[in-house]
Design a protein that fits this description.
The chain is of the alpha+beta class. Helix 4 packs antiparallel against helix 5.
């Protein structure tokens, strides 16, 4: 299995945990009417070149508008789908290109002593609200309206394990592992703004890497939201396996770049 196939399989398994999926000849339609503003849960995932781009666009627009959800597309291998992109423009879709780095851990453990001021614990019913508040405070995650519901659904799903970091007893950072077969993906790495710059993300990453190593999982992946974050993960043993240029077409709402910039 090549990198693209591995990444696609892992990504689909991840999306399946919080969205319903309809398989098509050109890819997938993902939707979750309880999370209408969560982009990842509501989009047409274009993997293959559509035989009839206009028919696909009409199908997707009808599907989402019937559910009061903004129609949107995630388009892969965009260099092969110029006809579809041109048609989307004629339908008044906004369009942006996104550089999506895919990184894989080199499996090397960094031996270091964690500060006594730091405690890392699994998220349970007891500390759930503390973790929720952290994730809802991160603008890049979509804020409370999006992340609040999504985090609650993830917490209930057995494929996710969330972790909470305390600094001097105060809950201030989170991260999680999503497992699928012998692959695992690190997600939702977040720190409260006032605690940034203390190396807390590194402490969480080292902790999760040790967890993965102990479980003998084949690969640990991370999908940085941009190249700036890619450089951060590179400091912790993550190597860029590939960079995909994907397209995001949408009929309304903010672009992904606007959300990421807060």
């Amino acid at each position: 299995m090549n990198i693209l196939q591995k990444v696609l399989e892992l990504d689909i398994a991840y999306l399946d945990t919080f969205a319903k999926r309809i398989n098509t000849s050109w890819g997938f339609i993902f939707y979750n009417e309880n999370l209408p503003k969560y982009y990842d849960a509501n989009h047409a995932h274009i993997h293959e070149v559509p035989q009839n781009p206009r028919a696909v666009i009409e199908e997707v627009i009808h599907f989402y508008k019937e559910r009061n959800i903004t129609p949107r597309f995630y388009i892969f291998d965009i260099e092969k789908k110029s006809q579809l992109i041109d048609e989307l423009t004629s339908y008044k879709f906004h369009f942006e290109e996104l550089v999506s780095p895919i990184q894989i851990w080199n499996k090397e453990i960094n031996e270091h002593k964690r500060s006594d001021r730091i405690i890392i614990e699994k998220v349970t019913e007891d500390n759930f609200n503390e973790a929720l508040e952290i994730e809802c405070s991160i603008k890049e995650f979509g804020g409370r309206e999006v992340r609040g519901k999504a985090f609650t659904e993830e917490f209930k799903h057995p494929a996710f394990t969330h972790y909470l970091l305390r600094y001097d007893g105060e809950a201030c950072a989170t991260a999680c592992l999503f497992e699928h077969g012998d692959q695992v993906r690190m997600e939702s790495v977040a720190t409260k703004e006032e605690f940034r710059g203390k190396g807390l993300i590194g402490e969480l990453i080292y902790f999760l890497q040790a967890k993965v190593k102990k479980k003998r999982i084949e690969d640990l992946w991370v999908f940085p939201i941009n190249e700036k974050i890619e450089k951060v993960y590179s400091k912790y043993g993550f190597q860029t396996a590939k960079k995909f240029v994907t397209g995001h077409a949408f009929l309304g709402g903010k672009s992904i770049k606007e959300i990421q910039e807060g």
